[in-house]
Design the sequence.
């Protein structure tokens, strides 16, 4: 559509419109302006923290450049911003906002995730200790991990009680609202393994494997697992 407006109706499929070229172009401009505005608004609503960081003028400039790419034309409105963080990372003057853009998108994914009941500690009450290691868990569909940088810290700092030592953030939506929590190294290690169904026994053994957390206190994996369950970051997998 935008190519036809810029270079003429010859870029439209034959027979799509009738009438002189001037009328076709005029009609397409009205339609294209409506679509273009909707896509710009969708980006603004998808990246509110980036909008606040860059300001309207800079944000809209980068948004228009992003939307004019050929690969963005056929992307559905609901996921129009999926590649926006990567796009910003390739622009020298906007690369500093790419991590915050990724955080905004992860927040949106958590908000839109399917409604699935998260595991709560009460679900494990009454289970015999020897049976607990066999319980299979997986990351909740709304759970996301986001690396923390100074811009993200500044944007969401008021939502966190203590993140002085945190390098990653946990986004969860066990109920109606997305929650943002700091993540310890042990919590992150468990969540990475919980991308796929895994028994509690395997999740607690994560620190014994190559590449996992060094110098971890003996009870740190259990504390991390409890913290993740309390946050609503996991779900039980039943056969």
Sequence:
């Amino acid at each position: 559509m935008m190519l036809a407006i810029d270079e003429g109706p010859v870029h439209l499929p034959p027979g799509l419109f009738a009438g002189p070229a001037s009328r076709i172009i005029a009609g397409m401009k009205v339609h294209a302006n409506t679509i273009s505005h909707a896509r710009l608004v969708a980006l603004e609503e998808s990246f509110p923290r980036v909008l606040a960081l860059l300001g309207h003028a800079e944000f809209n400039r980068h948004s228009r450049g992003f939307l004019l790419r050929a690969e963005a034309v056929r992307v559905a409105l609901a996921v129009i911003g999926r590649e926006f963080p990567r796009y910003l990372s390739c622009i020298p003057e906007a690369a500093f906002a790419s991590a915050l853009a990724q955080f905004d998108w992860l927040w949106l994914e958590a908000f839109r995730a399917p409604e699935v009941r998260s595991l709560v500690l009460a679900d494990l009450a009454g289970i015999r200790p020897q049976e607990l290691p066999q319980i299979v868990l997986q990351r909740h569909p709304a759970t996301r991990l986001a690396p923390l940088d100074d811009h993200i810290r500044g944007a969401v700092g008021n939502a966190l009680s203590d993140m002085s030592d945190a390098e990653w953030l946990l986004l969860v939506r066990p109920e109606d609202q997305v929650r943002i929590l700091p993540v310890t190294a042990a919590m992150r290690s468990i969540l990475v393994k919980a991308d796929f169904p895994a028994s509690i026994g395997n999740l607690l053994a994560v620190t014994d494997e190559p590449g996992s957390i060094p110098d971890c206190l003996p009870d740190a994996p259990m504390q991390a697992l409890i913290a993740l369950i309390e946050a609503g970051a996991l779900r039980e997998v039943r056969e």
